[in-house]
Design brief:
The chain has one domain. Helices cover 63% and strands 2% of the residues. The protein binds zinc ion.
Length: 291
């Protein structure tokens, strides 16, 4: 029987694809999946480049499970309470998040050690610009081919994303023509543009229109009664969308440059790296209130 009325939207599927596209588009634009380059600010003086290099080596040899264990202990040590998020999130999502967060940390530390990497980032920006400005199929095809041939994109198995764009090229070009597509050059607008495209592509992969994906994700309620509001048998309640999960998991690194470095010191101390023990993480009352 033909059911009338709007098509039901699977919000968990939409949320899943939004996160996948959010990461894939950040890799295209910035070379890393999660935003934030706090390490570009110099560390406290006692953290020498040699120490930073030893951290990079340690992070490189660390698996996702170990990263998560240490991160959980660091979060608990800083906040003085159990890190509930580590136990409530889907293990697959947590491992995936850990993988990207670890890559982000390595990239941030390496950018601090080798500021010369910035020209490569400029090329990346140009590719991103050509991507969101592409108006015709040949222009889009060219940029997607360049995107798919980037060594890190191939290495991380992300070539399916430019392929999805080409397979849905007409819808992709149409959503960019919509008057709501952010066209200004400011960094804030660039982030909105990335989110718009991630949400639109999530819509396509969740089998609704790009505009439905964009609207439903933008207006999603994250409090009680929201579509992804979850109640645990033990009484714990939370929004299970990727944004809310990330917001609670990343609190250890949310205090700006100094906090970022102090968080790394604590993390590396817990990871037993020699020479990382000199700083004790001090938490101001204001920071503690924000945890
Ligand atoms: Zn949420």
């Amino acid at each position: 029987m033909d059911r009338r009325g709007p098509k039901p939207v699977d919000m968990s599927l939409l949320d899943f694809w939004e996160f996948e596209w959010y990461k894939a588009l950040h890799v295209l634009r910035d070379g890393t999946a999660l935003p934030g380059s706090r390490a570009l600010t110099a560390p406290p003086l006692h953290i020498t480049p040699a120490i930073v290099r030893s951290w990079v080596r340690r992070l490189r040899e660390m698996g996702e499970e170990e990263w998560l264990r240490i991160n959980e202990r660091a979060c608990e040590e800083i906040s003085g309470k159990k890190d509930l998020d580590a136990h409530t999130s889907d293990p697959f999502v947590l491992r995936d998040w850990a993988r990207w967060e670890k890559e982000r940390e390595i990239a941030d530390l390496e950018t601090y050690l080798n500021p010369r990497q910035i020209p490569a980032q400029a090329e990346r920006r140009e590719l991103w610009r050509n991507f969101w400005q592409a108006r015709t199929l040949p222009a889009l095809k060219k940029v997607c081919e360049q995107w798919a041939s980037l060594p890190d994109v191939r290495g991380w198995g992300l070539t399916c994303f430019p392929n999805h764009i080409l397979a849905n090229a007409r819808e992709f070009l149409r959503m960019k023509r919509n008057s709501r597509f952010p066209k200004s050059d400011s960094p804030v607008m660039d982030e909105s543009r990335l989110e718009y495209l991630a949400r639109g592509m999530a819509g396509i992969l969740a089998d609704v229109s790009p505009m439905t994906g964009i609207e439903r994700l933008r207006n999603m309620k994250h409090t009680q009664g929201g579509p992804l509001w979850t109640k645990e048998p033990g009484g714990l309640e939370y929004c299970n969308c990727w944004r809310c999960r990330m917001a609670s998991s990343r609190r250890v690194y949310k205090w700006g440059a100094e906090g970022w470095w102090n968080g790394m010191v604590l993390f590396m101390e817990l990871a037993c790296v020699k020479g990382s023990k000199k700083t004790k993480v001090e938490i101001s009352d204001e920071t503690a209130r924000n945890l």
